[in-house]
Specification:
Length: about 80
């Protein structure tokens, strides 16, 4: 397995109502999914394919780490 994980950024797009993934480590990576779990499943397929398409040696297993970011607003309970 590759010794260093590829870093993936996943951000919530409130307007589109989807998680959007991008990465400086994986050239060409741009995908989205309605759920974070669905996004991760897509990444498991896309990352090795994109790395190979970019001429990198792809091993049997490729580690990646997903950093998520989602902004929300909390409201104080009305008493």
């Amino acid at each position: 397995m590759n010794k260093r994980p590829y870093f993936i950024r996943a951000e919530w797009d409130e307007e589109a109502d989807v998680w959007v993934a991008s990465s400086e480590d994986v050239p060409g990576l741009a995908t989205e999914s309605a759920t974070l779990e669905g996004l991760i499943e897509k990444l498991k397929v896309m990352i090795p394919e994109l790395l190979e398409a970019n001429g990198e040696d792809v091993e049997q297993e490729t580690a990646f780490e997903v950093f998520t970011r989602r902004f929300e607003i909390a409201h104080r309970a009305v008493v």
